[in-house]
Structures are given as C-alpha cells and as structure tokens.
Amino acid sequence: MEYYAWVLAKFVAGFVIIATHMYLSGRTQLSQMTAIDLIGNFILGGIIGGVIYSDTIPFRQYLTVLLLGVLLIYLLNAATKHIQVLRGFAIGSPIPIIKDGKFLVENLVSNKHKIDILRVASQLHAQGGLAFQQVYYAQIEPGGELTIICDEKDMPSVVVMYNAEARIAQLESIGHDAEWLFAELSELGVERDEVFLAEFWRGELCVTLKDGSELCRNQPA
C-alpha cells in the first residue's frame, strides 16, 4: 500500500509542477507552445514516466530533477525573447512565398522541408482564395498558418523594432536597414532605449514608447 501511495504522490507532484509551469509561462494551449516547450514537455514526461514507478529514486531527488528541467525550459524561453538568433531557431520566422503576385521560388526551394505547396493550396482555398493568381502577397507563419493578401493596400504591418532592438531581417523585407530606422527615430526625437515597439505599415512608421505613448512619421511617397 505504501508503494502505491508514493506513486500517487509522485504523480500529483509532477502534475502540479508542470501545470504551474504552463500556467505561469502562459502556455496553456498547444498552439501557444514553442519548439522548446514541446521538446521540454517530452523530457519532463520522460522524467515523470521513468521515476513514477521506480522506488529506487528518492522523492526529493525526483522533485529536484523535475524542477531543474522546468527551470531549463524557462531560461531557454527567456533567452529566445531577447536573442533574435535563438528566437528564429526556436520559434521560426515567417516565410514569404508570394510577393508582388509572383512566387518566390528560391524560398520554396530552400524551405522545401517546411512547405508542402499542395497543403498551402488547401489553406488558400479554406480562406476563400480561389487561385494563387489572385494573391498579391502570401507567407507561411511560424505556426504553419497561411497569410494571404490579395490587395496591395492591405499588406500587413512589419514590426521593425522591439524592446529597443532593431529587427534586421524585417527591416530588409521592407527595403531598409538599421541606420534608416535610427535616423527615423532621431527625426521623431526618440532615443532607442525609449522604444517598446516600432511598426511599419502603409508607408508610415509608428513608434510606441515604453511609457505607452505613440508617435508616427509618414514616409515620402
């Protein structure tokens, strides 16, 4: 009977620790999880599954290993929020597949292990698109969803700066670089460290400061 009591205690402790971790990290749904979360959950599940029926591993050691696993996942996720290279690796970046009404074949070829064009066609039809020919711009989102734009005027915004850090790849996608961004911020009288979010949409750069205020600058036609 004592054996089953310890099994139950290990099960409850593991469930509480992982559920608390998911709640505090905001990963309460599968769609919210990153690759780090998914792999980490397999590892945590392995820890619980490998220990829960074993009476040779002390309960305290089991809790310590489980908490170390949760801490590692937390630290890796925190790092991806501040290091763009890690974010691109763990979460991924949008993959443009159509631009100016033309397929970006080089992107399709270089990402052929990620993109199934027949599945993309099904997603297009599910969103009400009749044919690729009517699409002006399309991209595969990091989560695998398809975003399509049929009208040039409805192009989605591009976040070019987040938490005072310029996003180089996104700047390049709109034909600009970090020097241009910093010059625009200077024109607005804004210091880099003051920026929470900078968004480029319809030829306009809008900057949200860390105090919640917003400034916008129209670009010359």
Automatic annotation (TrEMBL):
Its main location: membrane. Residues 82-200 form the YetF C-terminal domain. One of its GO terms (cellular component) is plasma membrane. The keyword Cell division does not apply. Keywords: Cell membrane, Membrane, Transmembrane, Transmembrane helix. It is found in: Cell membrane. It is a multi-pass membrane protein. It comes from the Bacteria. The chain crosses the membrane at residues 6-24, 36-53, 59-77. Residues 6-77 form the YetF-like N-terminal transmembrane domain. The keyword Hydrolase does not apply. Belongs to the UPF0702 family. This is Membrane protein. It comes from Pseudomonas weihenstephanensis.
